[in-house]
Amino acid sequence: MIPVPTAQLHRRVIGWFDAEARDLPWRGPSRTPWAVMVSEFMLQQTPVVRVLPVFAAWLDRWPGPADLAAVPAGDALRHWGRLGYPRRALRLHAAAGAIVEHHGGRVPNTAAELLTLPGVGTYTAAAVAAFAYGKRETVVDTNIRRVHARLVGGDALPAPALTAAEMRRAASLLPADDAESVQWNAAVMELGALICTARAPKCSQCPVLDACAWVAAGRPEPHYVPRGQAWAGTDRQVRGAIMGVLRDAAAPVIREVLVTNPVDLALGSPPETVVTPLLKLHRLNASREQLERSLDGLVADGLASEAPAGISLPS
DNA sequence: AACGCGTGGCC
DNA sequence: TGGCCAAGCGT
Q1: Domain of A170: which CATH number?
Q2: Residue with CA nearest C1' of nucleotide C5
Q3: Are residues A123 and A176 in the same domain?
Q4: Are residues A250 and A298 located together in one domain of the fold?
Q5: Residues A277, A244: contact at Cβ < 8 Å?
Q6: Choosing a second label site near A126 at 20 to 30 A (CA), which of A117, A175, A189, A213?
Q7: CA-CA distances (angstroms) from residue A7 to A72, A172, A205?
Q8: Strand C reaches within 7 A of the A32 CB
């Protein structure tokens, strides 16, 4: 492998980005800081293709932070739809409230201020400051971590958790110029998403293939086996099914309907809109204990609200 | 510092 | 088919 100067890496990856980047709505001329922030919340652990329709409807409904802050949290949860991790909707709603309350209704333009908002961590703060405001920030997401691990580190995959050494490496690779640093961050992220993917990377299309330390080393296997995410039988699965019922319910659902298997259920027919999600919930054959525990967890997390009339999304 | 947290597409 | 994976965060 012929060592390639960092400046040339910048030029080649950004050049590739200019030619090949996807035309995503949060990058276009209609981009606002709020749109960037909404997209970053939705993209946390969620693929772009699933975010696109929800993002468009969300911004149409709530064009600015004050618009979202003015409605009940339950509205945010309902319009989050099936994006997953609904606590993100709750945090985005709370962040909108904090922006109205403490920042004059404008999305903060520094990473330090952004970090104080609920649901905004190291990555999202840096990403919003960079992509919404053109700031020079060390943006490190899972795509960037993987590209750096291969291109510079010679490893198949980054470590299981983000390390301080990785942050230093990312900072050392960042172009000095503000505008160029923004392009670099976006370009490396896009390279990781489209070419330098976790499985079956498209190395033949990579603009920096000849500079890749991992390829030069003969593409060694990962140092560890990634731990799978448990799903079947977990509280997480049950919580998801309960949220599905509550999202589609036109009225509060009484606790017994949620935690009792239909064969034991001697109640009148629940509202039509609830039937399908309810069947999905009870097909899980979760124990009453697990159903109760999961429901209590949702209430404790503020994702559901319990009143004498029954359980519903929070108001 | 591990762990819990939704959802669905992909090979 | 089912495990893996996706622009993380909070505790």
Answers
A1: 1.10.1670.10
A2: A198
A3: no
A4: yes
A5: yes
A6: A213
A7: 49, 12, 20
A8: no
- Is A221 a domain residue? no
Q: What is the mean pLDDT of each run of 10 residues along chain A (315 residues)?
A: 85 98 93 97 97 98 98 98 98 98 98 98 98 98 98 96 96 98 98 96 97 97 82 94 95 92 54 73 92 97 97 96
For chain B, which bases have at least one atom within 7 A of a protein Cβ? 1-9, 11
Q: How far apart are CA A273 and CA A132, in angstroms?
A: 39
**Residues of the domain holding A125:** 31-133
Phi (first) and psi of residue A307, to 5 degrees = -135, 170
> Quick check: A160 and A224 in contact, CB under 8 A?
yes
d(CA A221, C1' C4) / Å: 16
CA dist A68 and A62 (Å) reads 5
A29 touches strand C (CB under 7 A): no
DSSP states along A18-86: HHH----TTTSTT--HHHHHHHHHHHTTS-HHHHHHHHHHHHHH--SHHHHHTS-HHHHHHHHTTSS-T
**Domain assignment of residue A296, yes or no:** yes
Total tally of structural domains belonging to chain A:
3
Residues A187 and A16: beta-carbon distance below 8 Å? yes
Q: Which residues of A136-151 are buried (b: 16+ CB within 10 A; e: fewer)?
A: bbbbbbebbbbbbbbb
Q: Confirm whether A199 is domain-assigned.
A: yes
